[in-house]
Amino acid sequence: MSGTATALSDSGPAIQFEDVRLGFSEGDVFRGVSFQVQPRETMILLGETGTGKTLTLKLAAGLLSPSAGVIHVLGKEISSMREAELLDFRRKIGFVFQEGALFDSMTVGDNVAYRLREERVPEEEIEPQVREVLRFIELEDTIELLPSELSGGMRRRVSIARALISQPQVVLYDSPTAGLDPVTSQTIITLILRLRDVYGVTALLATQRLQDGFALANFHYDPQTKRVIRNARNGNAAAAAKAGQTRFLVYRDGGVYFEGGPEELENSKDPYLQRFLV
Ligand SMILES: Nc1ncnc2c1ncn2[C@@H]1O[C@H](COP(=O)(O)OP(=O)(O)OP(=O)(O)O)[C@@H](O)[C@H]1O
Ligand SMILES: [Mg+2]
Question: DSSP string of 258-274?
Fold first, then answer.
């Protein structure tokens, strides 16, 4: 995990969608989506079911091509990349799939190591790296266990570890707290906070839970005290700036309905946005 953040030298946006359109035979999902995520920023993608959150993450990872429009990630145009280039590009991206999507028949260690084995990393280099990310998620002891032997929250943490194994600069989280109880959700959010504040990871995080977004916007992780601390309302700006901003993107009817910071969203009088706030 050493050096994850420092590799980000590009001063442009980490992720940029320009007038992205996507349609299936059933109809259009996106009719022109544009937004940018700056390095170290966390963008919370909020929207009701079926509004295209998962598809956005798949587009950003180059797992899917847009029907029209341009997508840049880490300074590269991925919407027109060939498969060989995409394979190389995806090493810089961590994808935490909705529901975790671990391989049930593989141990936790093998799940986390999967990507390294695919990339033919020498076997003796794999175990130390796997142990390091498992230590980060505080589950090193589970290395020999099967996913079925873990709780739902632990499985979710392992799926985050699997996404971190190649030290990505950008992590795409698909509904990382869906289906978890509030206390377990908080442990996942704390892990995401630590990743952001220790390694400076840029994140695009899809969720239906507004609380997740506010937790990321209003708290930071202090590596010295190893605690999660509420950002001061005023002052403490240095800590907040260091942690990177949190912004929100709300989809509706195939486009971006709202883009802005937590206060703007919280204070909005818009009836549609207020439905997320109750
Ligand atoms: N391969 C596909 N073919 C046709 N339609 C698809 C395909 N994948 C997704 N869709 C449609 O695109 C829309 C957006 O799907 P997506 O999975 O991105 O929603 P979502 O916002 O992630 O929803 P949820 O909150 O339930 O996860 C849905 O209406 C879905 O049915
Ligand atoms: Mg989804």
Answer: EEE-HHHHHT---HHHH
47 CB within 6 A, ligand 1: yes
The verdict on the CB of residue 179 being under 6 Å from ligand 1 is no
Q: What is the pTM of this model?
A: 0.91
Query: pLDDT tens digit string along 240-268?
Result: 555 578 999 999 989 999 999 999 999 99
Pick the residue whose CA is nearest to atom 3 on ligand 1.
24
Joined together, the tokens standing for residue 214 give 């506010």
* Contact present, 246 and 41 (Cβ < 8 Å): yes
The structural domains of the chain, with segments of one domain joined by +, span 40-62+87-277
Side chain identity at 25, as an amino acid letter? S
Secondary structure (3-state) at 26: coil
Backbone angles phi, psi at 72, to 5 degrees: -110, 135
User: What class has domain 40-62+87-277?
Assistant: alpha beta
Between the CA of 99 and the centroid of ligand 1 the distance, in Å, is 15
Tell me how far the alpha carbon of residue 185 lies from the centroid of ligand 2, in angstroms.
Answer: 17
